[in-house]
Design goal:
Length: 53
Amino acid sequence: MAEQVTIILAIDRASELIGQLFGARGAHARSAFGVAQIPIGACVEIEMIAEIG
């Protein structure tokens, strides 16, 4: 259960950072999932597709 909370908190912080960096233009949708293992011992993996213009 603690690992699930860690994943949720990490993804929440990533969303907050995007909002701080880009303001209203950083509004986004997200999904989250946990797996047993991600390479290099990371607790989460965050991917972003962004349009800069």
